Amino acid sequence: MASATGSVMRIGLIAGTLDITENLVFNAFRHITPVQIFQYIASGADGAWAFRAGMESVALAWRSITRLRCSGLRSFTRRAGGGGFDSATGASGLVYGAMVYVIMNFVVLPLTRVPHARAAVTLASRVSGVLALLFCIGATIAVLTRRDRMREIAS
Q: Which pLDDT score, from 0 to 100, does residue 120 have?
């Protein structure tokens, strides 16, 4: 069990790091600072307070990101089978990433206190969001989970 928890945390950290890095780089071209990004994330729980709270809201955003990523990863790793990387692994990762995108954008976000500024949503930001979740989250988790399962089978 400790090994599985360590695996979940490691894979979640890698996937989450790729996802937030993509977000930071993409938004840098839009002149949006890292603090603004994390305040926006934190505003899901605390609304406009997050934009007034400064670094406190950044810490809240990191805690929220970690909790969401790890809870989704636990569910995914329970379903992963053995074997090497193949088209099924890639497809399952992309499907998982697509499910995360749909659930986050059309179920979770509308229920949060995140300011819903539709004007800020552009085609480029939508495409970036989809690709980030497909590849940074879905494919990364699928590949690393498959690799860990192969190691378990081999030992």
A: 67
